[in-house]
Specification:
The protein is of the alpha/beta class. The chain contains 15 helices and 13 strands. The chain has helices at residues 27-39, 71-79, 90-96, 120-123, 141-149, 166-169, 184-188, 208-213, 215-237, 241-247, 250-253, 260-264, 267-281, 287-305, 309-315, and strands at 19-24, 56-58, 64-69, 85-89, 101-106, 112-119, 133-138, 154-159, 175-180, 191-200, 202-207, 323-325, 336-338. The longest helix is centred in the middle third of the chain and has 23 residues, at 215-237. The radius of gyration is 22 Å and the shape is globular.
Length: 349
């Protein structure tokens, strides 16, 4: 019998090798952990150790491995085919604007916004409509230049990796472009938001070539992530708004509850963590409401868990190849993925 030879695909991995998932270090990874559990990805124990020097990890699925890299490097690993899947904020995608990457799914975590900010005293006499040339400190020089060029403003960008808020006070630049969640850091450093550039959230990325050459495997992972996002959103959505609003500010934790949900599931320790964060941000915290929300989250999660094993197994895409439709290169639309309808129902919500 003739041995089967596997050709090397353009995405940088042989057709019979495990897919590589690139994940960012830090806050996004912590928010991503509950979602990964729903998807069914269980990394080896070393992955949970933030001090570990190991960067590549096996998972419970022999067809998937994980690498842990800087958030800005995720897009590069995926674009050049070193990883076929990745998770990164759309701020990173906009900065690099790689045509080789495709973001089919918003994971609903890491929500914040990209803004222009300046010292409060400067704002009194400033008129952004009259800008022609400005100095800006930012982690996003390409994105910043494009944004201001569209307005006919020449932006001289000074790239910093962090501590952007110090730049105006020390005379490094007049303004900054940075990510903002609650605005507490800006306020603490005497800065005010003057212009909104983009809303930011975390996306699932795929390498376009890999999607064409290995559509069955990559399409399956896309669908599993999509279903996990829907399940977590349904669980948190069942908690009445007045409870979550009373527990802590919605603009801090977002409607999807991706930061709220993991902490509320940790019992007393989680409630205490919420209290401390609320105190740091200077917002009202209602412990009774938080405890009630925690019980409801637990009940929602239990209802999901009580779905029959057969229903859960049916929710995972089968090994049958997905229907993938590609348009000609001249058309700007994204490739369209189609999977047969999956039978997954939340009976207890």
């Amino acid at each position: 019998m003739r041995a089967v030879k596997y050709r090397k695909v353009e995405s940088g991995v042989s057709a019979n090798q495990a897919l590589m998932l690139a994940l960012p270090k830090g806050r996004i990874l912590r928010e991503l952990t509950p979602l990964m559990g729903r998807v069914g990805i269980e990394p080896e124990p070393a992955f949970a150790d933030e001090d570990a020097r190991q960067l590549r990890f096996a998972t419970n699925d022999p067809g998937l491995e994980i690498i842990r890299v800087r958030s800005f490097d995720v897009a590069t690993f995926v674009a050049f085919g070193a990883a076929q899947l990745g998770v990164a904020g759309n701020d990173v995608l906009m900065e690099f604007d790689y045509p080789e990457t495709y973001a089919p799914l918003d994971l609903g975590i890491g929500r914040c916004r990209l803004v222009v900010a300046e010292p409060a005293e400067m704002m009194k006499d400033d008129d952004p409509a009259r800008w022609s040339h400005i100095n800006v400190a930012t982690k996003y020089p390409e994105l910043t230049r494009r944004h201001f060029a569209a307005r006919g403003v020449q932006a001289e960008c000074i790239k910093l990796e962090g501590a952007m808020e110090l730049a105006p006070a020390l005379g490094l630049s007049g303004r900054i472009v940075d990510l903002v969640g609650t605005g507490a850091t800006l306020k603490a450093n005497g800065l005010v938001e003057i212009e909104h550039i983009a809303d930011v959230s975390t996306r699932l990325l795929v390498n376009r070539v890999a999607l064409k050459t290995r559509p069955r495997e990559i399409g399956a992972w896309i669908e599993r992530f999509r279903e996990a996002v829907d399940v977590l959103s349904a669980a948190i959505a069942d908690i009445p708004d007045e409870i979550t609003k009373a527990a802590l500010a919605q603009d801090v934790f977002g409607r999807a509850g991706t930061r709220l949900l993991p902490l509320l599931k940790e019992g007393a320790a989680g409630i205490e963590a919420l209290r401390q964060e609320a105190h740091t941000l200077g917002i009202v915290f209602d412990e009774e409401a938080a405890n009630k929300a925690a019980k409801m989250v637990d009940a929602c999660d239990q209802s999901i868990a009580e779905c029959s094993i057969s229903s859960v197994s049916q929710s995972k895409p089968s090994l049958a190849s997905p229907r993938v439709e590609y348009r000609s290169p001249s058309e700007s639309q994204e490739p369209k993925l189609g999977w047969p309808c999956c039978n997954f129902r939340l009976t207890g919500l």
